Amino acid sequence: MGSTHVTIDNVRLNDYYAEEDESKVGAVVPGNYACKLPQGPHDPDCCFCKPNGIRATQVGVWVPQTRNPEGTHDLLVNNVVSSATQADAINLHGYVRDAVVQNCHFKNTGDDGYVLWGADLEPENVTFRDSTIINTGILRPNWYGVCIATYGVKSVVFQNITCRSPTLEHPIPPPRSNGTWNKGCARIDGAMAIIYTSFGGKYPQGNSITIADWSFEDLSGRAYTPEAGSLNTPAPQKMVWTKSDDGADAMLAPFYVNGERAKVNVHAVMPSGISVDKMAS
User: Fold this and answer.
1) CA distance linking residue 124 with residue 127, whole number of Å
2) Is there a contact between 146 and 136 (Cβ–Cβ < 8 Å)?
3) Is 231 a member of any domain?
4) What are phi and psi of 242, to 5 degrees?
5) How many domains does the chain have?
6) Residue 65: which residues within 8 A CB-CB, separation 6 or more?
7) Three-state SS for 227?
8) Is 216 part of any domain?
């Protein structure tokens, strides 16, 4: 059964050992980098199968998919702070509706930051706002994780999200990419947001994803700009920007679609002081 009318408020996670474990964040763990998925039960490959020694929860907030058709609704997550998570920061899974995540601060994840994973259950009226996410994916260095990710959604708004990510020199290519730069590559720190069709992600007719008033910066707080980025697809040492689906008002925003773009409607509201007139080839 889905939970209803739940408030998670003023919670601090994974800080008790943060200072002691700081040197382990991003450290190389020998034998952890044979990422040749898919793996079978007798496959000798080890893709981050060894522990990194960082004492942290798997996620900050996790809403599971439920069997009941009503799902999870009327959820408020406010002021949750975390120094490390082994996987996502906040992941809302399944049919979630009328939910707000706000005033949160996460850093040092091992996967994505703020995630809506509806699969084919069409979550709707979900808002992530006024929150910060820093250095996603660093607990599995160079492998997987961006600040914002969707895996199937009917309607969601990401408003006033601050994303601080490094530009990686040697990201680990995903399986079956042959190590080349293409639309399937750079699934870590290649954009502020990635719209995925994997993990069962479906986008029904009339879907809406809004990215508004963003701050997209490197770890030193310098803003990423469209003119220094790549268009639509990942490229070495560049962040991806894609035009929104706003007709005559379309603008470049820091996202790309990992799948069939025609089925996804991404709307953007540009933060002040950002120029979208130029784009590097």
Assistant:
1) 9
2) yes
3) yes
4) -140, 145
5) 1
6) 93, 94, 95, 119, 121
7) helix
8) yes
